[in-house]
Structures are given as C-alpha cells and as structure tokens.
Amino acid sequence: MQVGDLATWVGAVGTVGALVFTAYTLRRQIDRERRADDEHRRMYAKRVRVSITQGPISIAEVNNDGDANIYRVGVYLVDQQTQALIARSSTLVDIIAPGTQQSFPLVPVTQGAKLPSSIYCFAQFTDDNGYRWSRYVMGLLSETAREEGISRKRAEALLVSLSGVGEPPSAVEVSNDGERSIHQVSVLVRDKSDGRLTAASDTTQEAIAPGITHRFRIMPTGQGSSTPADYFCIAQFTDSYGLLWNRYLMGRLDKISPDPPLDGSNTNYKLLRKWRRALRRRWRRLIRRTSQMLSALRTRHRNMTTQ
Q: N or C: which end of the chain has fewer CB within 10 A?
C-alpha cells in the first residue's frame, strides 16, 4: 500500500513539473515571437525621419524613406523639463507617400510665450499596419497608446461645452458636465480665414470643477482689432489626464496634445493573453485534481489505521 501511495505522489509531482516546464517553454517561445514581431513592426517605422529645417519653432520636415504610406502625421515641440507642449503642426497630414517628404509649419500653443532652454521635437504617425508611433529628431522611436484608450478620454472631453454671450461674443461661458475637473481653461477667438487670433479671455481659469459653469470676458488681442464676421470661438483646456484639447462653439473637438506613450500594462498581445488564460485553467484543474488525490490518500490512511 505504501508503494502505491508513493507512486501516486510521484505521479502528482511529475504532473506539476511537466506543467511548470510547459509553461516556462511556452513563455519563452511567446517572448521570442513578441520580440520578433516588435522588431518587424519597428523596422518600417524606423524609415521615417523628422528634422527641424527652420527653427527652433518655425518649420519641421518629415521624410518617409520606407516603401509604404504613413498616415495622420503631426509634429510636436515639447519642453524637456516640464513635458509641456510648446508648439505643434497646425493640422495632421492625412498621408505621406513612400519616398516623399512633407513640411510642417509649427504653431506656438501660447502666443508670445518664452521658448524654454531645453526642448525636443518629434513626429507622430500611423503606419500601414495601423500602429501609431512617435519618431524623435534624435532618432528614438516609441509606440503610442492604443486608439481605444484615447477614445475614452475624447468622450470625457466632449462633455465640456461653451456658449457665447452676444454677437460677436463679449463673454463666453464654459460648462464642465463631466465627472472630472478640467484645468488651465481659456477662450480664444480666431479668424476663420487665416487662423489669426483676434480676441481672447482676459484670464485663464486654473480649474473648473464638475458641474460648474465659468464665464470668461472676451477682450481684443490688439489695438484696433475687432472680431471678424466669420470666426472660431474655442475653449482650450487640459483634462485630468494631462491632454490638451480645443473645444469649439459649434461642437468640434480637437486633441492638441500628441498621443500618450503606450502603457506598459497594455503591451501583451492577444496570443500571450490567450496562453495565460489557458495555463491558468490547466493550473486550476491540476490543483483540483491534486487536492482530490491528497484527500483520497488521507482517507485511505485513516481507514488503514482504524483497521
């Protein structure tokens, strides 16, 4: 009887050892495949280059030296110390074809602001496989956050609204109907024809709490300037995630900040998650079977001692 008990124990230990070895082997294989996939995806993104041709905040140039299109291309200039956005390209370019280049005039986020002593510049683009990247002037390359994460933040930013008082507006009310505070809120009035800033709020509100409406007084930006007949009225604010947004009077919403970096917690691929779920199920079954075997052994041992 003791030999049978020993054989049962050896079988259980062998099963556990086999499962652990299988898990270790699968994990190494998945890691190798993931590294190979990373390198394959990066190989194409590395063929995009960005440089400052006139500057430091005048014109940037993006070169697509690859053999596939890149999409939704924008350029950003950031304060290296505070990570604050200093300037950006006025629009996103829909497509840059292989072997071509595109110039991007850079527009300061805050007119007349002093340029920091330490800055860096990078371009963001989506490759032909749908991955989005940040490519830096110094040559670094990093992947940005998935679109679904940014979509959630956009949905929250859409809960900010504004309404004008008067025509043209002498005051603008900004309402925060979301569940989080918004910060550094100001109002801008721009000429639709050339984007020129013609008026702005006389103050910047540090924060607007959820459910609160704040009224901004609108003042001309220069002597003799007046609000054009056709204009954009924009509330500019930073959300609780640190992203900068432009919310328009007619409802449009633009994300001014570049896409945030990819969160390390989201870097696992579907295959890795699938194998982990499978291993967890197998591990639970093994624990359950081992527990049942141990319980049977204890029962048999008690029966033998009572005989």
A: C
